[in-house]
Input
Amino acid sequence: MRASRPKVAIAAVAAAALAVAGCAESDREGSSGSSKDTLVFGVAGDPKVLDPSFASDGESLRVARQVFETLVRPEEGGTKVSPGLAESWEPDAAGTTWTFKLRSGVKFHDGTDFNAEAVCVNFDRWYNAKGLMQSPDVTAYWQDVMGGFAANESDTLGESLFKSCSVTDPTTVALTFSRVSSKIPAALMLPSFSMHSPKALQEHDASNVSGSADDIKYPAYATEHPTGTGPFKFKAWDIANKTLTLERNEDYWGDKAKLKSLIFKTISDENARKQELRSGGIQGYDLVGPADVEPLKSEGFNVLTRPAFNILYLAINQKGNPKLADLKVRQALAHAINRQALVDSKLPPGAQVAVNFFPDTVEGWNGDVTKYEYDVEKAKSLLAEAGASDLKLRFHYPTEVTRPYMPNPKDLFELLSADLQAAGITIEPIPLKWSPDYLNATTSGNKHDLHFLGWTGDYGDGYNFIGTFFDRQKDEWGFNNPALFEKFKTADSTADQAARVALYKELNADIMNFLPGVPISHSPPAIVFGKDVTGVKASPLTDERFSSAEFKS
Amino acid sequence: MALLDVEELSVTFARRNQRTVRAVDGVSFSVDAGEVVGLVGESGCGKSVTSLAIMGLLPRQPGVQVGGKAVFDGTDLLQIDDRSRRDIRGRDIAMIFQDPLSSLNPVVPIGIQVTEVLTRHRGMKGQAAAKEAAQLLDRVGIPDPKRRLKEYPHQLSGGMRQRALIAMAVACQPRLLIADEPTTALDVTIQAQILELLKELVRDSGTALVMITHDLGVVAGMCDTINVLYGGRVVETARRRPLFRQPRHPYTVGLLSSVPRLDAGRGERLNPIPGSVRDLLPWPDGCAFAPRCARRVDACVGEPPELVLTHDGRSYRCVNPAPVPGLTPGEDVREVVPGQATPGSVPAQAVPNDPPAVPGLAAAPSEEETS
Amino acid sequence: MIRFIVRRLLQLIPTLFGLSILLFIWLRRLPGGPETAILGERGTPEMRAAIRQNLGLDEPILIQYGRFVRRMIRLDLGTSISTKREVTTEFIQRFPGTVELTITAMVIAIGIGIPLGYLAARRRGRFLDHASVGGSLIGICIPVFFLAYILKAIFSENLGWFPSSGRQDPTLGATRITNFFVLDGLMTREWDAAADALWHLILPGLALASIPLAIIVRITRASVLEVLNEDFVRTAEAKGLTENVVRRRHVLRNAMLPVATSIGLLTGGLLSGAVLTETVFAFSGIGAFLAEAIDHRDYPVLMGFIMIIAIVYVLVNLIVDLSYSLIDPRVRVR
Amino acid sequence: MTIISGKKREKIDRLAELAARDEERGVSLWQDAFRRLRRNPAAIVGAIILIVFVLVALVGPFFVPYGPKDTMGIREGVVKVGQGLIPGPSAEHWLGYDHQGRDVFSRMIVGARQTLLVGVVATMIGLAIGALIGGVAGAAAGLGGRWGRWVDTTLMRFIDMLLAMPSLLLAVSIAALLGPSLITVMIAVGMVSVPVFARLLRGSMIAQSNSDYVLAATSLGVRKSKIALSHVLPNSLAPVIVQATLTLATAIIEAAALSYLGLGNPDSATPEWGVMLADAQPWLGIRPALAIYPAVAIIITALGFTLLGEAMREALDPKLRK
Output
């Protein structure tokens, strides 16, 4: 009897399983045998949310870029503003009202038409955000660009840049802004300003960000029913298998996607991604480690290098240590670090030493600014002059994180601190976990003297770089330079492109003289595809369009 | 032809970088059908090892050497292969062990432990086996056997456990039963009962019994022939009565005199044997007992003492045996076997169970008997 | 029996309570906070303040704890700060993966460990014995993540025998019911899906099994050796039982007692191992998710998951106790 | 030291006799254990590994060819990880450069010291805390009485809670709590072994307190606390020492695991095998050797500790002695 007990149990389980099997029927159409029309792409993390209005993380945006489209979008492989859902656009004389001529015959994935009406529905949705939808972690990009809402519910918000949207005719829409801004129209390229189907928004109650303060719940729309006009439709998000599946939008207005389906598979570990590519489980992945670029190339994989559209800088906090308020000391730091060696040894091919706080691909880049060549002796003498020969600095650096602009912070730190010590500066290393500790410590308070950080541009306007850093007093830098701040204001509110670019040039020069920090490098992030995958063009804004991807037979 | 003939049985344990131990060193004795034979000696004299060797239960490890013969009606148990040995075990030769608790599998019900023997040797299964098992338990005096079958060893009392073990042993009416200190672990009252049980079992089943014990009391109670072991050899063999009345080997004398006796006069003190089994002399260089022996003489050391067979059919291995009152030393000696040879080679039943009360007359009759 | 289980379950309560307090204190002590995790590079101090307020992080600790406990009792573990999904949902999504992985590992460990340990004991001092003992030593000494990496490099990267990451080939588009992929595959008769899922389990299973396997081999060997010199084995031999019966009924059954307990204690270790293995194999389970959660200071996730793991752990031990009392009649279950 | 009345002194003297017998047993136990150790090849191997390891750790750093932090490879421009260039072994650099252009050989040697440090300190922490908790619990249990039992159960409940936490998770939690630093690693790894030591010590103390000589002492009416301190504790140490040896092995491995999860010692300029192994991950593609050296070193060392520990356990285990 004793012996037979387990048998009984097994039998029972089996019976149960079969019983379930009876009712559970396979609901998949014949498993796609030839995966030649299916691309599996390895990504570093799960997307957080599928409604780009609420997204700020790269992975969510990557998905959004395939499913949704914006009025204007960057030219493929570039940063220039080019036609998206709008064929053309122009500001009025004042530069505050922009009129967009819309592409006709565009349909959303749910079959409804895209038109001026839809555009306004979308903008009004964002502008009239209420309650939790105003929380900074829900609509980060809107707040970043527009600065506020119709009715602000938090005093940390300001007046909204966006004012109103009006329909002129089904294919013409006018957006009115409260002031002239460098951000328009470039910022409208951001996926967060993607056009959603009003019907779908309605059906799935897209603006209802519910839940209580400390557990925000997204509406079903944002997790299950993203409905755009893009070349791919959302199919399924399988959290249990860390995969997100898109399928071809058969009635796309433009060139239809060549792939039948596109699958994003989350593999957080860099090596894991590489191994999976080699073992054929995926046909491409992003965030290729610099060291892997050459090997992968030599193995015949298609390694695409994005134009460097980022900046890595050494930040100096003038509040942290009074000595740092002395320009001489800051110059000494700049001379003390061997940026060339760092770029040569640590960064992928194509990386450059930075002379401005943004790369030369952005208009307004200025070649003749004060440069600070590597010169330890000079650094020492400068320190001596400033009476800071016994300088002791707290150097923050992030642990285990890779950013497009800094492949391996720990290594960079070790090099830089070695350089600084060579110049007779004492370094107190303060390693912190990237998020949140490091970002907390370096962007607030004044416990930090030195740290490095960087930025990847959102769109091709200089302000998005230097403006973000220096246009007002910030804890990160701890200086107050009214003249500089003023100049930024003028630049931002200059409607005329040429004039603004000229101002950017000046600003770059000023910045490099004032030297709030030391720009280190621009490094080109790499993205890799399988040996037989072609058609994808690397984009500086990581706006790769998978619709053009195909397997060459 | 005896049922079991053990000749020159020797067991040595060789351990890595330790000197090899001769646990049994040329033991010889024989058991006849239905006879009760005792193997007596202090612990460590090799009694148990002997029995294990016969059963082939010694650990099968390199370094364990078994020599000599153990012939069980015609077949030498030491030569046969594992399979046929397993067939004999439990069916023809059964064994009872010292500690009933540790000798029973704690996680298997008594019933199964009994029936498994029946299944193995008598091909009984299911109900039949269970029924038989119940009868066996009943036969060894376990009340309410049906229930007991389902119980586990830890639920039984010491005595019950030993009875259960006995039940398993006699399950197939073996022809030879080896009981290794069957009562040592039990308290006195139980001891008596168990001994009684064993007695009647052998009586009515005609099973021969080898009783291994250090307790002369037990032996006195039931054995026909007694072999006294010391240092892995039989030092004296005799029928029960003569041994107790007239021990010859000093060791036997020692054993006897260290047992408290009711008939001992007041003031008469016990005199235990000095020293312990450990300090023995390896047989080749003399009498192993010599170091502790009260009657030691120079001759004891040097070469192994010869085996002496007496007219009254006893045998001992001693150069200076305890004297028999009225006999000059060596007078009763019939034959002397050189040191290497074995004691007990005299067929035991040739010896009259009652030697003449008067030592003086002993020589003559015994001569006739032996002739 | 029932009363025993009930009592054990009741005993859970104080443990869980204490644990929840420990956790709570721990979580509050963590440097930084979720706010920056949410904001990332773009966070301004003002925004952070706003979020702290939103998340109710500046309410009195007791109130926050009270809220937490109320939730726990309703088994509502709140919403993940980083994924914005209910922790319970996350759990339902990811736990099956870990369970499948752990079971695979255990099957490997037990299936190989016990026989190997037994043989080693029977062939004591021979080659097999030394080999298995030596092997198990190395199994204990090799860092799991390194082993995992080696396995991957050899069997998937170079030989291409096994997939190197994930739980199933996404191109199969298999149907999901329970999120136990193998089971789902069987239930929906998507045999290829089931097979594929199983295939994905083998390498990580091996990596995860390394330590338990080693331990089980050693324990089995030790306890078999011990049982082999037990008197009752000698008795069994004396009864002339066939080797087979002696082995099964008398040796193994007794030798299993310590092994059973060790298996219970191993589950804790397995969960630790899962954190590493799942990370290396990009295997979607709670192990990897916990690592992420700690990175993101995802309070609700951490709280919920650790509690659940603790419960699972205690339950497993309960089961072991029960099985123990089944094997060993001397252990009374009251 | 309290003044003890004549009567009591007499008692304690009598006890001392009893204890003395036990002590002498203890001594012989150690000697005899040592004898058995010398005969056990595993123990010999383990011991040799450890001796080498400790020697390297202690004196090695004074003889390394290059500074372990010197990023010479980058200065000389021979190391360009950006282009996948990390030169391998050469006459000057026996194990080649690492990704920071440092001499791997020198780092391995110096790393040995750091690794040993982490292992030892972590174990010490675990031992100290564990022994404290377990000791108190055991003593309390020994004292018996309502309070004794209460203290015992409470402490053990706490230990159970620690046990319920998967070890790595515990370590990760602590590391996350204290922020990455060498000390953190030590504490985190140490904490993992606390419950083990606590249970162990408590267990053996309770076992001890039921042993004959303690019963004897009690019967002689010696104060229980005194027995606990002067006899039970010292005699409970054997298993603890064994466990400590074994824990050293796991400590080194756990430390490596923490580093792998990015919770290790962030100052990776100072070499430690676990950190080196973790740091090598990004370069596995171009120079797996960078990972293999420290990994093998870790395995061998851990093996050494385990071998010796196991051997000691066997040697001290009365059951295995026969």
